[in-house]
Predict the 3D structure of the following.
Amino acid sequence: ISAAKGGYKHFMQKEIFEQPRTTTDTLRGRVDIEHGRVTLEGLALSEEQLAQIEQIHAVACGTAWHACLVLKYFVESLARTPVEVDYASEFRYRSPVLRPNSLLLALTQSGETVDTLAAMAEARQQGIPTLGILNAIGSQASRLADGGVIYIHAGPEIAVASTKVFTGMLMAGYLLALQIAQAKGILTPAQMQTHLQSLIELPGKISLLLKDTSLYDHLAEQYHHVTDMLFLGRWVNAPIALEGALKMKEISYIHAEGYPAGEMKHGPIALIDERMPVVCIATRDPVYEKMLSNIEQVRARGGRVIALINPEDTQIREKADHIIEVPSTTPLLSSILNTIPLQLFSYAMALRRGADVDQPRNLAKSVTVE
Ligand code: G6P
């Protein structure tokens, strides 16, 4: 087992550190920078069929569901195609209305999650094609995906808490958004080139985020006794806040809530006091100023702010109790980079609390029964 961990203490830690490579592998052979084109080899739908898609339904469970939420921003921004996101367990029982020219997108690492498989079966029954964004090869989901499969190629993920698969799903989701935009003629080859260039720069930026992780040990030293935490983000980073909170509760057993920051005033603000660390995702994007005022509101109530910012930031740097620097990228792709510090923080907290990082209590890697 310790050999399988390749010198790392836990599989989760190993899988976090594999991300520069796994995100590269998701892109491999699919990106043609020179011509500004994307080719997802596993699609069973032609460019003409892709061009006709009017609605996407994205379904998944757990961390993969958060990936669906991010993918909605990617596809709606880049390919101007509406995306509805459902928990697979809700979708299957709500008699979903699936119009012609829609597509079901199923995100699942294992390809064996029972609710996600049932959602795929529902789409098939209604005559709607299903496309899978999958990791494990040869799963049940791969057989049900009549619209094709995009493998993320992250390799086996052993830790129960998903890390490298989440970022892999986002990379694949971005490629899919570009592929649909290309099919619909929404982006010119030159615009595609710009997007692809930003995408291929991500693995190197992930490496930078993994260089020195001592900050997370310091944060864990200071905060490991807390009972509650709040994670806030807006726009494409709102789902990243949800994922940060999920990771924290899964492995450290600290009660953590993720919220779109704009909703803070409609509830969570009542909980904020000096015992409540608030992780704020505040890298540069169109809603930066809004995040800034959310941070001021947290501070005014005594909350401790741990902020994710870009290196060139000056405004939030002064206001936060702690800052985590994240390399700059495009606003949409910031979601992928911002994920990494939140993984490292939850890992450090779990470690400091002596929790069983790879096998958290009551959780399973894949939920194959209802
Ligand atoms: C379980 C795992 C999660 C995972 C979810 C969906 O809850 O603990 O890490 O995100 O299942 O799994 P899937 O294999 O469908 O991606």
User: Anything to note?
Assistant: The pocket of 6-O-phosphono-alpha-D-glucopyranose is lined by residues 61-64, 108-110, 113, 116, 160-162, 363, 365-367 (CB under 6 Å). The chain has 15 helices and twelve strands. The longest helix spans residues 164-183. The mean pLDDT is 96.
